[in-house]
Amino acid sequence: MHCPFCRHGDSRVIDSRTSDDGLSIRRRRQCPECGGRFSTIETASLNVIKRSGAVEPFSRDKVISGVRKACQGRPVTDADLAILAQRVEEAVRQTGLSQIDANEIGLAILGPLRELDEVAYLRFASIYQAFESLEDFEASIAELRADHARARVDDAAATASD
């Protein structure tokens, strides 16, 4: 790491701390040449392979803008979208891969979006799961209804045991 003051080609790490979100490391450094101190922030790179074959850095903002379209007219806040994007990034990083297909990111969005808003989920899923017919929508809605029924049974069982 070059010193920003004297451009010396080396520096010594004095202190390292993980950021609050755990996705980056803040390092305090000192130049052995001039004694100047400075901070650096290090993050692991995560690249997205687009359908065209182009590679670009992962962007939470792109996740948010894609999901925002599915959430138009729904009671979803910007804070909800920011949390969703963070959850998606964490899930993608947990794969341990430094490059991931754009379609995989779309699929990683489905779970958190389903929890956030089921209508937005259906809109988004129709694209990323390539719905081709009304039956695809009906099957997805039937799955949502079955999950609701299971949740009601689980809630009733939990209430009965209290």
Question: How would you characterize this protein structure?
Answer:
By secondary structure, the protein is an alpha+beta fold. The protein folds into two domains: 12-43; 47-130. Helices cover 50% and strands 19% of the residues. It has helices at residues 60-70, 78-93, 102-116, 118-128, 134-161, and strands at residues 12-18, 24-30, 37-43, 47-49, 55-57, 99-101. The strands form two sheets. A three-stranded antiparallel beta sheet has the order 1-2-3, with no helix packed on it. Strand 1 and strand 2 (24-30) form a beta hairpin. Helix 2 crosses helix 3. The protein starts with 11 loop residues before the first strand and ends with a helix. A zinc finger (unnamed) spans 3-34. InterPro entries: ATP-cone_dom, NrdR-like_N, RNR_NrdR-like. Residues 46-136 form the ATP-cone domain. Its cofactor is Zn(2+).
Helices and strands in order, then pairings?
Elements: E1 12-18, E2 24-30, E3 37-43, E4 47-49, E5 55-57, H1 60-70, H2 78-93, E6 99-101, H3 102-116, H4 118-128, H5 134-161
Parallel strand pairs: 4-6
Antiparallel strand pairs: 1-2, 2-3, 4-5
Helix pairs in contact: 1-2, 2-3, 3-4
Zinc finger (unnamed): 3-34
Cofactor: Zn(2+)
Keywords: ATP-binding, DNA-binding, Metal-binding, Nucleotide-binding, Repressor, Transcription, Transcription regulation, Zinc, Zinc-finger
Provide a quick synopsis of the model.
InterPro entries: ATP-cone_dom, NrdR-like_N, RNR_NrdR-like. This protein is an alpha+beta fold. The protein has five helices and six strands; from the N terminus they run E-E-E-E-E-H-H-E-H-H-H.
